[in-house]
Amino acid sequence: MRLKQTQPEKDSGSPGPINKWIVPFERNCRVTDRESELTRLQNMLFTSNQFAKVAVSGLGGVGKTQLALELLYRLKEKHGNYTAIWIHVTSMESLDQGYHAIAQQLGIKYSRSKEADVKQHVQEYLSEDSAGHWIIVYDNADDIDMWTDKSNRLIDYISRSKNGRVIFTTRNKRVGVKLAYQNVMELSQLSEDSAVRMLRNLLIQKDIVDSNLADAKTMAAWLCHLPLAIAQAPSSQEQDIIESLSEEFEDDARYYGMKNPVTTTWLISFRAVARLEEVFPDHGHRNRAVWRTYLPHARYVLESALVAKDNASRIDLEWKLALCYYSDGRFDEAETFFREVLEFRTSMLGPRHPDTLESMAKLALAYHAQSRFQESKALGVKAMETQKIVLGEEDPETMSTMSNLAMTYSDLSQWKEAESLELETMKLRMRILGEEHPQTLVGMSNLVYLYNCQGWWERAEELGKRTTSARKKILGDEHPETLLRIGNLAHTYNNQGRYKEAEDLLTHVVNVRVRTLGKEHPHTLSGMSNLAVSYHNQDRWDEAEGLQTRVVAARQTLLGPEHFSTLTSMAHLSSTYHRQGRWAEAEKLCIQTMELRKKILGPEHHHTLTSMTNLASIYLDDGQLSRAEELGLEVLATRERVLGMEHTHSLASMEHLAATYKKQARIAEAEDLEIQVAELQNATVL
Asked: NB-ARC domain spans which residues (predicted)?
């Protein structure tokens, strides 16, 4: 049975007989294993003789509506004198219809000439003691703007009486907190046993579950243990997979014309993901738990052989799925879908279409995230050059691609190219978008990263403080973009020897990321890695080693043994072994890291040269002086050729070689080098 909402008459007319049961659904016999939740909800509403309101929050299809409905029927059985009211609030139209229907059913006289009149009359009627005991369910209260918009605050029309109770059902816990304060009840998925039991009860041939228990558990897990998804599973057929995600499931306790909530929950989530800033979904990861839950469903749709490769809905879903995977740090999976979208758009729209170029730029970003810098550079250059022709260099998409390409140059140690391109982009953004625009701040943060890479600490600190302050002001302390800026500033503090300040900032970053992203997200691991460096620099070897060991293991599993970030963590752990006097372990790990960096990044890359310097330091402390000198000379020659003698890293290599000469008792040569370093530093300052 599908329930159609009754259309109200234009005039209220004479009131008919009073009806105290204004609930549009029949009782659902499929409510299962929710006794503890029902008891808790009842206790939250009826433990005192005062007005109470409770919000029931949870994923679409988890059973919020069914829980509230069952409570109303039980209340009706025990207390027949209760007025029970059900209002569907997915839109202003449905809410207005609900209030008009309530007024008619309760015999409230009102004028249709004023839009707010009926809501006010219902509120006043129920607020009087003469209305008796009543309970209202506001179902699907997901849109906070409907309740708090200053022009028509629906929250002000909620009736209050010692005889009244209110239930809100919502997918959005934040909405629940706004409407019911601390009285929010989160409804979780069914347990595995309950989910399997429900699946069995819904099947005609129940022995199918009994004889295939493992398969039944797998199916229940795939359905995320959501009651509505399980209820749908036995009757659904895969005649059209795309449409099955949006079909109106035949459920007696759903509204006519309303999409299946399992479907609409993730559809809403993926629409939110589409509103991106440059790199990450700009929703502060608030709905991450939602779309993480529904990713298996979407993935199943895309892998189904019944969906045409050129289906427009499929391509749109692939794009949104790729963005989710990228945001979640699952870069190889993101790459797969970005590439499929790029191939489709190139074929259907042409290689110069703006959407095709956007796909190309995002695929380049996925390559970068996997340390495939040369591939990222080649594709990024192609996207940027074509975007400049098609869109112009002042288009936000073009500027975004330019900025991302600059970061690729930076990670390739092509710092002159990186700085030139990022400064060019910054000037465009400052002029066109303004200093506090999110994209402008991204560019400023990229410059901080670039300055840190080159050892320009003062520039990095000054710009880092500006970007961090601006991000906090606009987005708050815990937004992912703010945390990224705080992490960059902490990195600068570490390099300046301000280890405690760095530790304080990084502790905040790690705690927030663990809570919002999880312990194994690439950004969380990045924060943990930098925090371990802070411990290392404060001679807290055991803490540093423990954290670095965890990060190395996690990155090897998540990103792979040859990833840029994995190699960084291995280098840090090797340095800790070195400082602990564990020279054999330090040497072994350092050589492994150095060889991988030579293979992946090349012999002239900054990180490769850093590994060679670290290995030279180990040799120096282990008394292997000739090896230390040989490596030191090779590093210095490369840096002078690539960066110039005056560069910070070249000067550091000269100082390191001077220390080696001192160990070899070659004092005069060491002093000559130190004098040369001082002269070059003074010349640079002047």
From this structure: 35-206
